[in-house]
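Consider this one:
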Amino acid sequence: MRAQSAGSRAAGAKQWWGLAAWVFLCLLVSALGGLVTASSVNDWYTTLHKPPFNPPDWVFAPVWTALYLMMAVAAWRVWRLPGSDLRSRGLWMFGAQLAVNLAWSFLFFGWQRIDPALLGILLLLALIAFNLRLFLQLDRTAGWLLLPYLAWVTFATLLNASLWRLN
Protein backbone atom coordinates (compact mmCIF):
# COMPACT_ATOMS: atom_id res chain seq x y z
CA MET A 1 0.00 0.00 0.00
CA ARG A 2 2.78 2.38 0.91
CA ALA A 3 4.65 1.85 -2.40
CA GLN A 4 1.43 2.47 -4.32
CA SER A 5 0.92 5.76 -2.47
CA ALA A 6 4.48 6.81 -3.19
CA GLY A 7 4.00 5.86 -6.83
CA SER A 8 0.76 7.82 -7.00
CA ARG A 9 2.45 10.85 -5.44
CA ALA A 10 5.32 10.60 -7.93
CA ALA A 11 2.88 10.36 -10.84
CA GLY A 12 0.92 13.32 -9.48
CA ALA A 13 4.10 15.35 -9.06
CA LYS A 14 5.12 14.51 -12.63
CA GLN A 15 1.76 15.83 -13.86
CA TRP A 16 2.18 19.13 -12.00
CA TRP A 17 5.77 19.51 -13.19
CA GLY A 18 4.52 18.85 -16.70
CA LEU A 19 1.93 21.60 -16.36
CA ALA A 20 4.58 23.96 -14.98
CA ALA A 21 6.83 23.19 -17.96
CA TRP A 22 4.07 23.93 -20.50
CA VAL A 23 3.17 27.15 -18.70
CA PHE A 24 6.84 28.12 -18.62
CA LEU A 25 7.28 27.41 -22.35
CA CYS A 26 4.21 29.39 -23.36
CA LEU A 27 5.00 32.32 -21.06
CA LEU A 28 8.61 32.30 -22.32
CA VAL A 29 7.35 32.68 -25.89
CA SER A 30 5.00 35.39 -24.66
CA ALA A 31 7.86 37.21 -22.90
CA LEU A 32 10.15 36.99 -25.94
CA GLY A 33 7.36 38.29 -28.17
CA GLY A 34 6.69 41.02 -25.64
CA LEU A 35 10.33 42.11 -25.67
CA VAL A 36 10.30 42.35 -29.46
CA THR A 37 6.98 44.18 -29.39
CA ALA A 38 8.20 46.67 -26.78
CA SER A 39 11.02 47.67 -29.12
CA SER A 40 8.61 49.45 -31.46
CA VAL A 41 5.13 49.62 -29.94
CA ASN A 42 5.72 53.09 -28.48
CA ASP A 43 7.31 54.63 -31.57
CA TRP A 44 6.89 52.94 -34.96
CA TYR A 45 3.50 51.40 -34.18
CA THR A 46 2.09 54.75 -33.02
CA THR A 47 2.87 56.26 -36.44
CA LEU A 48 0.74 53.71 -38.32
CA HIS A 49 -2.71 54.57 -39.63
CA LYS A 50 -5.06 52.23 -37.78
CA PRO A 51 -8.55 50.99 -38.57
CA PRO A 52 -11.40 52.15 -36.32
CA PHE A 53 -11.68 48.69 -34.72
CA ASN A 54 -8.05 48.73 -33.50
CA PRO A 55 -8.20 47.99 -29.74
CA PRO A 56 -6.38 50.22 -27.27
CA ASP A 57 -2.81 49.10 -26.61
CA TRP A 58 -3.54 48.06 -23.01
CA VAL A 59 -5.89 45.28 -24.24
CA PHE A 60 -3.18 43.19 -25.87
CA ALA A 61 -1.09 42.13 -22.84
CA PRO A 62 -3.94 40.69 -20.72
CA VAL A 63 -5.57 39.00 -23.70
CA TRP A 64 -2.31 37.38 -24.82
CA THR A 65 -1.46 36.32 -21.27
CA ALA A 66 -4.82 34.58 -20.89
CA LEU A 67 -4.45 32.95 -24.31
CA TYR A 68 -0.94 31.67 -23.57
CA LEU A 69 -2.13 30.18 -20.28
CA MET A 70 -5.04 28.43 -22.02
CA MET A 71 -2.65 27.18 -24.70
CA ALA A 72 -0.35 25.78 -22.00
CA VAL A 73 -3.21 23.92 -20.31
CA ALA A 74 -4.36 22.56 -23.69
CA ALA A 75 -0.89 21.26 -24.54
CA TRP A 76 -0.51 19.80 -21.04
CA ARG A 77 -3.81 17.94 -21.34
CA VAL A 78 -2.65 16.37 -24.61
CA TRP A 79 0.86 15.67 -23.23
CA ARG A 80 -0.70 13.66 -20.36
CA LEU A 81 -2.37 11.26 -22.78
CA PRO A 82 -0.81 7.90 -23.66
CA GLY A 83 1.71 8.13 -26.50
CA SER A 84 0.35 7.80 -30.03
CA ASP A 85 1.03 9.11 -33.51
CA LEU A 86 -1.91 11.49 -33.19
CA ARG A 87 -0.64 12.80 -29.86
CA SER A 88 2.84 13.32 -31.35
CA ARG A 89 1.39 15.16 -34.35
CA GLY A 90 -0.73 17.33 -32.07
CA LEU A 91 2.22 18.32 -29.89
CA TRP A 92 4.50 18.91 -32.90
CA MET A 93 1.80 21.10 -34.44
CA PHE A 94 1.50 22.95 -31.15
CA GLY A 95 5.25 23.63 -31.22
CA ALA A 96 5.09 24.73 -34.86
CA GLN A 97 2.29 27.21 -34.28
CA LEU A 98 4.04 28.51 -31.16
CA ALA A 99 7.21 29.13 -33.20
CA VAL A 100 5.29 30.89 -35.97
CA ASN A 101 3.49 32.94 -33.33
CA LEU A 102 6.86 34.19 -32.07
CA ALA A 103 8.15 34.71 -35.60
CA TRP A 104 5.19 36.99 -36.30
CA SER A 105 6.30 39.31 -33.47
CA PHE A 106 9.73 39.56 -35.05
CA LEU A 107 8.28 40.21 -38.52
CA PHE A 108 5.72 42.78 -37.45
CA PHE A 109 7.28 44.59 -34.50
CA GLY A 110 10.96 43.67 -34.64
CA TRP A 111 11.54 44.24 -38.35
CA GLN A 112 8.47 46.47 -38.82
CA ARG A 113 7.41 44.57 -41.94
CA ILE A 114 3.64 44.48 -42.18
CA ASP A 115 3.55 42.61 -45.51
CA PRO A 116 5.56 39.49 -44.57
CA ALA A 117 3.89 39.59 -41.15
CA LEU A 118 0.54 39.25 -42.92
CA LEU A 119 1.78 36.10 -44.67
CA GLY A 120 3.12 34.86 -41.34
CA ILE A 121 -0.15 35.39 -39.52
CA LEU A 122 -2.08 33.65 -42.30
CA LEU A 123 0.23 30.65 -41.83
CA LEU A 124 -0.26 30.92 -38.06
CA LEU A 125 -4.02 30.93 -38.49
CA ALA A 126 -3.87 27.74 -40.58
CA LEU A 127 -1.55 26.03 -38.08
CA ILE A 128 -3.80 26.94 -35.14
CA ALA A 129 -6.88 25.61 -36.96
CA PHE A 130 -5.08 22.35 -37.74
CA ASN A 131 -3.74 22.14 -34.18
CA LEU A 132 -7.23 22.72 -32.77
CA ARG A 133 -8.59 19.94 -34.99
CA LEU A 134 -5.91 17.52 -33.76
CA PHE A 135 -6.43 18.49 -30.12
CA LEU A 136 -10.21 18.03 -30.45
CA GLN A 137 -9.60 14.47 -31.62
CA LEU A 138 -7.35 13.81 -28.63
CA ASP A 139 -9.06 15.73 -25.82
CA ARG A 140 -12.14 17.86 -26.41
CA THR A 141 -11.30 20.25 -23.58
CA ALA A 142 -7.80 20.80 -24.99
CA GLY A 143 -9.32 21.59 -28.37
CA TRP A 144 -11.85 24.01 -26.90
CA LEU A 145 -9.08 25.75 -24.99
CA LEU A 146 -7.51 26.69 -28.34
CA LEU A 147 -10.74 28.17 -29.71
CA PRO A 148 -10.30 31.65 -28.13
CA TYR A 149 -6.74 31.69 -29.51
CA LEU A 150 -8.06 30.92 -32.99
CA ALA A 151 -10.69 33.65 -32.62
CA TRP A 152 -8.14 36.23 -31.43
CA VAL A 153 -5.65 35.41 -34.18
CA THR A 154 -8.49 35.64 -36.72
CA PHE A 155 -9.14 39.16 -35.42
CA ALA A 156 -5.39 39.90 -35.41
CA THR A 157 -5.21 38.73 -39.04
CA LEU A 158 -7.94 41.20 -39.98
CA LEU A 159 -6.09 43.90 -38.06
CA ASN A 160 -2.77 43.03 -39.73
CA ALA A 161 -4.43 43.09 -43.17
CA SER A 162 -6.04 46.46 -42.41
CA LEU A 163 -2.73 47.91 -41.24
CA TRP A 164 -1.08 46.65 -44.43
CA ARG A 165 -3.81 48.25 -46.54
CA LEU A 166 -3.73 51.57 -44.66
CA ASN A 167 0.04 51.89 -44.54
